[in-house]
Specification:
By secondary structure, the protein is mainly alpha-helical. It is 68% helix and 0% strand. The protein has a single domain, classed as Tetracycline Repressor, domain 2. The protein has eight helices and no strands. Helix 1 packs across helix 4 (62-86), helix 4 packs antiparallel against helix 5 (93-110) and helix 5 packs antiparallel against helix 8.
Length: 161
């Protein structure tokens, strides 16, 4: 009989994850102070305390760094929306709608630079890779669609004719 064992990350995997978290944190700080167009992998490496060539093991380019920040931002926003919606009863459709809207607004006010990266003007020369960003980027709209579906199924909302 085989037993399922949870895999524990190796020290190398933990160190890599921590370094990516540090790169993301520093990248978001640079995003807030310099803006997306001026984001620099070298500047992030300098603040991380590594030579610029070392950071390229984690992010290959400025575009890769931007994608890391975009995915992180979408995930954080999605988590905030999920947490807010979970605090409201499933059958309180209006309350869930308001909770989602308030969560987005609160997150945007707390993270204006990341909000601008996600929903503001495009960064010149950058095109977000769909295979990495569509899933995280559609979490909020998916929550709204689920809410609409739940409300319709409950008879609380009618489809227009």
């Amino acid at each position: 009989m085989m037993t399922s064992m949870a895999t524990t990350p190796t020290p190398r995997q933990r160190a890599r994850a921590q370094t990516l978290e540090d790169i993301t944190r520093i990248g978001r700080r640079h995003l807030a102070t310099a803006g997306a167009a001026a984001l620099s992998v070298r500047a992030v490496a300098r603040d991380l305390g590594v030579v610029s060539s070392a950071i390229y093991r984690y992010v290959r380019s400025r575009d890769d760094l931007l994608t890391l920040l975009v995915v992180d931002g979408y995930d954080e926003l999605g988590d905030a929306v999920d947490a807010a919606a979970a605090k409201v009863a499933d059958d309180d459709h209006r309350g869930r709608f308001l909770a989602i809207g308030r969560a987005v607004r609160a997150w945007a006010r707390k993270e204006p630079a990341t909000y601008a990266l996600l929903f503001g003007s495009p960064v010149p020369g950058y095109e977000a890779p769909a295979e990495r960003t569509v899933g995280p980027g559609t979490r909020v709209i998916a929550a709204l669609i689920q809410l609409r579906t739940d409300a319709y199924d409950a008879g609380a909302v009618l489809l227009p004719e």
